[in-house]
Write a structure and sequence with these properties.
By secondary structure, this protein is mainly β. Helix content is 8%, strand content 40%. The chain is built from three helices and 13 strands; from the N terminus they run αββββββαββββββαβ. The longest helix has 12 residues, at 26-37.
């Protein structure tokens, strides 16, 4: 995979390019259309993780690697995205009303959406909050606030475009679109100066390269996170994910005798994905 920070494919109705002073970058609407279409692939990283997230034909998949030595997940040992040689299978996948968690290259556990709230589920398998693991990060959610996987937080209002400007970051200037989310009080009102801010940075080609999140409190801006974008595509490139043929599918643990005996029940087989 070619190592470049950003590669945005143009194929939607709005071309990427510069914008008039103070106006939102044209690419912003491109991203909105892309995420609403249900077919996309994004790769990004922040201080702690690198991640690929994709959706196609109602099937959403993600794979995460951790940028801290020795930090692994229960499900997926360290795999290096952005040019590394880690596993290619998804860590989590949603398809046809079922959630899948891949514990190995040829092994996954499955849970139907209707049983997601079952109080007997094995907590070690991490079903709690699995939707959020498939959601766009909040920084990218400024383009798709109605992402069905995103946790709904009534206290946070939808993002509103504030203004476009130039912003100096690490010695380089970028076009910057700022968005703000008001933080609501318990009575539904706003706190005035309490907001979540998102600065979307675009390079000289009009391509999104980074989104910075900040907290505005008492008139002071506090940095929160920097999401660096590798690429955003309106398609899922072949080979982004791979599922081995004859992958064995096991039922999620629900505290029954099979769990006590550590004998998971195989409920099916997946014929692979390339």
């Amino acid at each position: 995979m070619k190592k470049q920070w950003v590669s945005v494919a143009l194929g939607l109705s709005i071309a990427i390019g510069g914008s008039p002073a103070g106006a939102e970058q044209p690419a912003a609407e491109t991203y909105r259309q892309m995420f609403r279409s249900g077919t996309f692939c994004v790769e990004y990283k922040d201080e702690y993780t690198s991640r690929i997230l994709a959706e196609e034909n109602g099937q959403r998949m993600e794979r995460t690697s951790y940028n801290i030595p020795g930090w692994v997940t229960f499900l997926n040992p360290l795999g290096a995205l952005f040019g590394g040689s880690g596993p290619k299978h998804p860590e989590i996948m949603y398809k046809d009303g079922n959630y899948y968690q891949f514990t190995e290259d040829n092994r996954a556990i499955v849970l139907s959406k209707e049983h997601l709230a079952d109080e007997n589920l094995d907590p070690r398998q991490g079903w709690n909050g699995i939707d959020q693991k498939l959601a766009l990060p909040v920084e990218l959610a400024i383009f798709f606030w109605k992402d069905p996987y995103r946790e709904k937080t009534p206290a946070i209002a939808p993002p509103e475009f504030v203004a476009s400007s130039r912003k100096l970051v690490d010695g380089k200037e970028y076009d910057c679109d700022r968005y703000a989310c008001a933080i609501k009080r318990a009575d539904g009102g706003g706190d005035g100066d309490a907001k979540l801010l998102y600065d979307a940075l675009y390079d000289e080609k009009g391509q999104l390269v980074e989104i910075q999140s900040l907290v505005l409190l008492g008139g002071t801006e506090y940095p929160n996170n920097r999401l660096r974008i590798k690429r955003i595509l309106p398609e899922v490139p072949k080979g982004s994910f791979a599922i081995s043929k004859k992958t064995k599918i096991y039922a999620a643990g629900n505290g029954d005798m099979n769990d006590l005996l550590d004998q998971p029940v195989q409920v099916g087989q997946m014929e692979g994905l390339k």
